Amino acid sequence: MQSWRWSALLLERTAMDKLVRFCNVVDRTNEHLGKFAAWSAFALVITQFGIVLMNHLYSEGSIAIQESLTYMHSLLFLGAAGYTLLHNGHVRVDILYSSLTRERRAYVNLAGTLIILFPVLLMIGFYALPYVNASWQIFEGSTESSGLHLVFVLKSLILLFVTSTLLQGISVSVHSVIVIAGFGHLVEGSLGEKSQ
Q: CA-to-CA distance for 74 and 10, rounded, in angstroms?
């Protein structure tokens, strides 16, 4: 009987280690994706500055360059959503949350992820998939002849948003369950929290 118990505990620990490793991969991926998306903000400012200079100094304009602002703006917001969730940066009604214990915050995070985040992301993904697929089927481009003919790529950022945020939501849920189960030391500093 005792050996069975140790085997079950070892299996439980191995499964938990795998979940923690999966979450670490998701966290690192969203960290890199967020930093990459942040560079689009820099590119956005430089491009906008260039457009203003071209327009005022040379009375020149480029539709493709102007459309690129939309692409960079979309990458910034849609590409960094998972990163923002990783660092607990989304808007939250913080009336009680900051005064809660780590375990109670884990309950709040788990409930919010399961009740709000996952259903909303699944709905967005469900409706976006045919929209993006139709765009890819015709390799949809700009309505302007000299514009960027990459609208299908732009629309694909919706799926990047859904995927990265959904995976980060899974990571948040797993971290929360681990904290609730009393193994919070395995996920120290997760969810943008400071150790207590």
A: 45
pTM exceeds cut of 0.85: no
The CA-CA-CA angle for residues 100, 103, 108, to 5°, reads 70
Q: DSSP for the chain, please give it.
A: -HHHHHHHHHHHHHHHHHHHHHHHHHHHHHHHHHHHHHHHHHHHHHHHHHHHHHHHHH----HHHHHHHHHHHHHHHHHTHHHHHHTT-S----SSGGGS-HHHHHHHHHHHIIIIIHHHHHHHHHHHHHHHHHHHHTT---SSTTS-S-HHHHHHHHHHHHHHHHHHHHHHHHHHHHHHTT-GGGGTTGGGPPP-
Of 25, 63, 53, 44, the C-alpha closest to 171 is: 25
Residue 176: closest CA among 115, 104, 120: 104
pLDDT tens digits, 125-173: 999 999 999 999 999 999 888 889 999 999 999 999 999 999 999 999 9
Domain definitions of the chain by residue range: 2-192
Q: How confident is the model at residue 121 (pLDDT cuts 50, 70, 90)?
A: very high
Residue pair 129/162 in contact (Cβ under 8 Å)? The answer is no
pLDDT of residue 62: 85
Say if CB 97 and CB 108 are below 8 A apart.
Answer: yes
